[in-house]
Amino acid sequence: MIEQFAENVDLGLSKSEKTLPSKYFYDKNGDELFIEIMNMPEYYLTRCEMEIFTTQTDELVDSFRADKNEYFELIELGAGDGSKTRKLLAALSDKGYQFDYLPVDISQNSLEQLQLSLQHHLPLVSVVPKHGDYFEMLGSVKDSHHPKIVLFLGSNIGNMTDTVASDFLYQLGANLSKNDKLLLGTDLIKSEDIVLPAYNDESGITHSFNINLLHRMNTELGANFDLDAFSHAPEYNEDEGIAKSYLLSNKEQSVKIAATGKTYHFRAGEKIHTEISRKYDDDVLAKILAKTDFSVNSKFTDQKNYFANYLLNR
Ligand code: AVI
């Protein structure tokens, strides 16, 4: 694990345009900061998706299955605390649908919390947590031959490049059967004055989230990053529809990383690219889906048209 972290870091920091993989944001501290991000006034994404789930619950759950009496599996990739999904679970359960809920997450701790909270709030819903990597888990449920609805929410797909997203959806489709469905949460392309503050909040939580990556490298890889010598510098280009996060070196400096055995040099103003947050529209999605087995069935948006949950048919 540490070896792979060190290898990825070395690869990214050795490039002429330095990068660090965003998956390393999410240690315990990063998970907590991300929960804070979701509650920030500037971070509209979570509220908008919640609005869709709250105001269009019936339409959403009824679009999942034609036959109420046919058992299905509801699989959520990256379930986290499951707070939004709880709305859907409650509606499915109230309407008498026959299903098991299979939350998949890399964090055992999140899964345990989620299971406890669902036992308390929705004791009638059968929860079968799956700990591990998305595809490993999908592989393990593939053999069940029951119809499946997969949830991939929160614009998590936005942290992938279009090529990676297309590949990911292709692989996901390969693990599903015809007539299975995918509910995909996407943040929609909109103007800079709305998107950029979501990644550059006044209270500095996103700054801490980005800098936490350097902190992790200090504690886990024996690096000596001076955390005050880097700034959080997000950008958004509306034409492209992509928000990008960078860590900017405030001065010329060198950093040693024990785990890679190397020293890395940073020019004053040099940027490390840490994350992309892709925003979607129907055309972007169509291009991404072109080489996959999915097609759009329906689209649910919030009132402001900031966020969309696309229901896709396999
Ligand atoms: C998890 N993901 C969808 C978030 C996003 O909006 O790209 C991660 C995030 N990064 C900074 N703020 C939130």
From TrEMBL:
GO terms for biological process: methylation. Keywords: Methyltransferase, Transferase. GO terms for molecular function: methyltransferase activity. The keyword Transferase applies. InterPro entries: EgtD_Methyltrsf_superfamily (IPR051128), MeTrfase_dom (IPR019257), MeTrfase_EgtD-like (IPR017804), SAM-dependent_MTases_sf (IPR029063). It comes from the Bacteria. Residues 6-313 form the Histidine-specific methyltransferase SAM-dependent domain. This is Dimethylhistidine N-methyltransferase. It comes from Psychrosphaera saromensis.
